[in-house]
Amino acid sequence: MQRRTFLGAVGASAGAFAVAGRPVRAATDSGRIEQLVFDSTASLLNADGDPVAADAGYVAVRAESTASNTNADGNGGAEAAVSYPADRPIPLVAAADGVVGFGAPIVSDDAEFNAGNEEFVLSVLDDVVGSGTVLWDDSHGQYYNSGRHSEFIDYANGNGYDVAGTDDLLADLPDADGVVVTSASESFTAAELDALSSFDGGVLLFTQSDYSDYDATANMNEVAAALGAPFRFNDDQVVDDANNAGVPFVPVTDRFDPDFDYFADRPGLDFEIDPSKTYTVDVVSVTDGDTVDVRFPSGYEDTVRLVGIDSPEVPAARDAELAEEWEGVESYDYLGQQGTASSAFATQALGGATVDLTFDPNEPLRGDYGRLLGYVAYDADGDGGRDTDYATRAVSAGRARVYDSGASRHDDLLKRELRARFEGRGVWAQSDPEASSEIRNGPVDELFAPEAATVATADGRIDDERVPVYAESSAEQRGGSVRYDDLPLVGVDADSRVAMVATPLLDDDYEQSQGFPADTSGYGNFAFVTNLLDALSMRPGAVVNDGGHGQSGVPLGLDGEDLPFYMRYLEGVDTGLEQVNDLGSGILRLGKALLVTAPAEPFTDDDLDRVRSFVRRGGAVILVGGALPAAQRRHLNDVAAALCSDLRLNDDRVVDPASNLAGRETIPVTSNFDDDYRLFSPAGGHGRGSGDDGEDDDSENGRGRSDSPLSGGRGYGRGGVCRADGHGNGSENGGGKPGRGNDGDWPPGNGSDGDWPPGRDDGDWPPGNGTGSGWFDNESDGQSGRGGDSDDESSLVGGLLG
Predict the structure, then answer these.
(1) Tens digit of pLDDT for each residue in 278-311?
(2) One-character DSSP codes across 314-358
(3) Nearest partner of 660 among 5, 16, 41, 73, judged by Cα
(4) Residue 564: helix, strand or coil by DSSP?
């Protein structure tokens, strides 16, 4: 079983002392743990599968009153979530007769150990086991196996237990005093269930939410039933918009039942690091170009994954490499060579050095595998000052790429990467995006639409003429303030240059090479989205993905690390993909279209002003949603409203029991297209239709787009900005893709014959600072024109770098 994770920052704490060779947090003066954090948690039900009574005596922990539960995977029938009434407390932990059930794996290595989770679970062990041997079941396909609980296991072993993983539960159970079972993707045999039912030791059961159908609720409930527990696990996800650790799907709570002796404050795990401080540490070893081990003055050692960058993997770690992450590079052998060179670069700069370690305010303290996420600054010139940032130096030298997360330094590092790519430094010496193989660029016959919702408008239903893609007739709408018979998955607002795509069509979670059980490479998701943004945009450039509004690690949020296969696809059709975190950094100038997916944080007024300016100057905005939590849906809809578009993401879910991917009804498959829209051919293969303009007034006849393939030449407008919908009288005379300039190369300089896209007679890419017609007329922000001779200093990249 897998899931996405949200890693909260670990704050400062009291003094530490050693338990099992690890620093631990000393007990506070309160005498009680302050709160528990439940990352991706299910709720609990009674033994009949109904909501637990408010006064049930076996519930130890309840969610706050602001929490609710949702059917995150959209499954129906036996796998449907059971809804809790608004006035009923939602149980998260229950205990009876030596069996304890938890709604989430709250002590996995990526848990927040500054919150009290590990102290709480240790107290549970003390109550139901006491001491001795505890088996951690690894024999039923668990994702959250013992290896992903190493920190807690070390902590428990330092407190009187012998906790160890087992691959043969039936054989090892008779000698155990307790057993831990996490979400089991493989069912238990009858013999195993019989053995558990007669086991007289303590049992801890950890499930997880049904996000993306990662849960194994049925298997876990078989175990709970065999043990005679009065509770069962719900096939749901608990969310809390008010009390959470940063996002709604990580609720926090202090609603503890004092009748249970589980909540005493005691020495717990903590790594005694304050992320607001700078630490001077010694580098004791260099793993590769982005990972080092460091020693703190106290003697404590830890691993630091250098935040904001990613270096090529060394040949021995080739299985961890993904060539699609490296623009214009397809050879794994070459990346392995560059991984070796990056490791040597890091060893020369950092090996044995004393460095200053700092942390990013936008990033968690720890990432995958429990490693610290930090920046290191070192003495590069021998003057004694540790004033050279390693990440900056590595990216500038082409020894690392920018890692597309929410890091605060992302955009500055990206500007340096752009220059390194342009100059062919380091790994970029053999980067040639123009030579990248064209992939997946066939006709769009079908789309798969994971975690889909429907598109609505501010006034209710969207007009059919604005919908290029519907779900199949077999699809079902679950919930929704706006109800439909035919379910629209994509809506277009041509006049505002905005589209709403109510499903994350581009997410690499659905790539077979990333572990998805079906091959999705034959679907037309990439070509459709590319045709859509090309049709809406009136300017050249890259596709720019917004990563600065908390998209990393939240439901349906996509940062650049979720889009490597789409980036490779775009290279094959002569387009780039970049991420922008700060919309005022200048990166947005590179774009022809902005992708905004599931923002966990609202856009500021300044952000919205910049996006409006981008659209006024010809850019398109593609809003990408799905069945989102309320806050993310609201943030996405606020962007649409700020752009004077009436498009909205509906508060529903689309499932299809008949037409779906990999047998999952939450991933509908559709070919229900409006072919009047010229969005279903290979990208780059459509022409622009022409239609008569409608009237630009407050009447029902708005100004139609006469130059767009969005309706096959049928102009469609909305009566000007924020006015009533209207139609132009277009005729379908769009042909093949228009010609290019004299030299025909893309991206363009200022070609001389006026065709689109222009050629590059007078300049190379990025465009020069010529005095001819710019991308934008009379720009106040210093955007370069398209004319003039271009070198790296006069290019747009050069301009971005100052």
Answers:
(1) 999 999 999 999 999 999 998 888 899 999 999 9
(2) PGGGGGG--GGGSTT---HHHHHHHHHHHHHHHHHHHTT-EEEEE
(3) 73
(4) helix
